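Morning!

This is the sequence you dropped in the shared folder:
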Amino acid sequence: MTFQKALLKAVARVESVLTPVSEELERERAEKIAIKEELDAMKRSQEESDARYSRFLDLENKLQDAMDARNAALASKERAKRQLQHGVDENARLSKLNQKFEHALKKQKEEVTKLEIALKESNNDRHVLKKKLRILVKQSVTPAMQDSHPDDSLQILEPEGKESENRGKPPIDKKRIVRKMTTK
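The structure's back. Tokens below.
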């Protein structure tokens, strides 16, 4: 039995040597599993962190786009405000110009009305003068038929102040005037 004893002793010694090594291996295996689990957790954490960072970059880009859009809208608003102010100023200028033109038009209409009245009066005076001239021509053509008392309404009277204007001017040729009136 010595061989068996020696074998059992050898197995016990191997076991005593292998048991701590086996325990050490078991501990190292457990540590590796724990490290692997920790590494997997870190990878997941890194992936989540990367996703968050990517989301952060997306949000930062969206924020920049929104800021750019806001700035563009503010610039557009300022342009529109300036254009509106220019339109208001232009409208005021045109309104003043329109008032000026309306005032000038009113004055012109008044002047036209005055001139039309003067023209009517002139036409009436011309008509009366024409009649008087015809009668005077008839009277000068037929002196035998003249009354000794001429009609005062047929006499041509110069307005006051006109006599001085007609001084030094040649006398009016009544026959020429009559010919002109009859040829018209």
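Headline: The mean pLDDT is 82.

More detail when I'm at my desk.
O.
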